Amino acid sequence: MDQLLDLMAKELKLPRAGVAAIVALLEEGNTVPFIARYRKEATGSLDEVAIRAVEDRHAYYKDLLDRRKTVLKTIQEQGKLTPELKTKIETTWVKAELEDLYLPYKPKKRTKATAARERGLEPLLDSLLADDSGADPFIISEPFIKDEDGLRSPSECMEGAGHILAERLSEDAAIRAWLRLEFHEHGVLKSEIREERKADQAALRFKPYFDFSEPIRKIPSHRLLALRRGEKEEILTVRLLVDRENLVSQLVMKVPVNPGSGYRRFLNDVTGDSFDRLLAPAIESEVRYEAKKKADAEAIKVFQTNLDHLLLAPPAGQRCTLGVDPGIRTGCKLVVINRLGQLVKNEVIYPLEPKRDLDGSRALLEKLCTESPIEAIAIGNGTGGREVEAFIREWLLETNRTGLICVSVSEAGASVYSASDIAREEFPEHDVTVRGAVSIARRFQDPLAELVKVDPKSIGVGQYQHDVNQTALKKGLDDVVESCVNRVGVDLNSASYKLLAYVAGIGEGLAKGIVAHRFEHGAFKRREQLLDISRFGAKAFQQAAGFLRI
């Protein structure tokens, strides 16, 4: 553990004592917001970003240690675990390096090298590599001819020995590490349009990439994700190009062959086969995968920043609001939401084509504003939003209601909310169009409280969000929502269960329990009443109490 803490502190450039404290607190079951807010004296006042970085690296190394145990056990059971190999495995802290060390001992499908070994050609290879007499390799191969095994000539024996050497090179951890670095440092991503898609209009979206190349270590995340999407849609062919001849010639120099061996003149062909058939495809996949991970991380960081700004947009507060969900053919849905966010009434107007009932729309707006103390109008920014906003602003001028606030509100994800389970629970008697208008009005009143009800991916916080790793994206966006909720705090007596679920230590199950308790027993008067809820223990209370207000 000491070595692991030293490694994490050095990698993240954080004080070792702070890293040790964070790891200990996480293992005790404490949440990141709780540690950041209430354990500053233990962590040395490290912020939430640093704590999440420690959490991520700790999870990575925990997985690596579990995998290391499995690898050691598997090789030990094969009777092939030498002290040297054990030391190498126990001192590696990179998953790719660990897998490289395990590769020669990993159960694999039948290969050309497997068949050659079964024919007894491994001793031939060892003889060819060790020979210092300069003897003709074909003469050395003659004793290994076996008609019953299909080995009828020295050249067939040599070919089998070459397959074994090719596999040895492909499973050598040092060679794989060297090649991985070469592909990353000098590889160039090259994309071309596929021949069969040249006349396809849909392919024009990827026109900048019809004949494109850029070093993989320099390519920005958005371009890499665009290339991958074009490849996935079978519009582009994407390859990672390297200087094959140079790498094969360097690979020859890494073969453990005696300088006097006559087999040396055959090595270029064998290493070329190893490179083309075994090494290059695997290393290209690994390097492109790592580049994709890096691009994902950068893209998710942008999504996180955008979501943070969206969730923490200044709330308008408790204002009676007229929510407008623009629609052309089906009309614009109007809802009146009181200061507590409750639906009072709903109507439909048709100020746009094809009906264009301007007089009827003005009359209905007048009626709603007369019957309810409306203080603001929130209009969704979807299709027809600008035209509806212009119509309503003109009506406000005509009726001298210039003091009434009129704003455009992002409706990204409103349709997702309106069809969700929580929307059906809140408004079982209303259809999706009414629920969408309610969401727009509530977003104006309190963006955070309303947007937490929508899957963060559906809010539209960045490009290529369907192309990045979905597990990493969900965790990254959930972390942002959790951070925002706990920075602001939550009113225990008015928050929805979706909002409460993001409070440190609570989760969805306890959040529903809080709402049910509130419905049955009325408003909470003290936070300690939370302990009366089933499964709400002292640990959950410790984590959550500081982020709840009454």
Throw out a few tags for this protein.
550 residues, 9% strand, 25 helices, 3-stranded antiparallel sheet, alpha/beta, 10 strands, 55% helix, 5-stranded mixed sheet
Q: Which class of secondary structure composition applies to the elements?
A: alpha/beta
Proportion of residues in β-strands: 5-15%
Across the major sheet, the strand order is: 6-5-4-7-8
What is the residue-averaged pLDDT? 93
What does the main sheet amount to?
5 strands, mixed
Rg to the nearest angstrom? Answer: 33 Å
Q: What is the tally of beta strands?
A: 10
Structural features, described:
The protein has about 550 residues and is α/β, with parallel strands linked by helices. It has 25 helices and 10 strands. The longest helix is centred in the middle third of the chain and has 45 residues. The mean pLDDT is about 95.
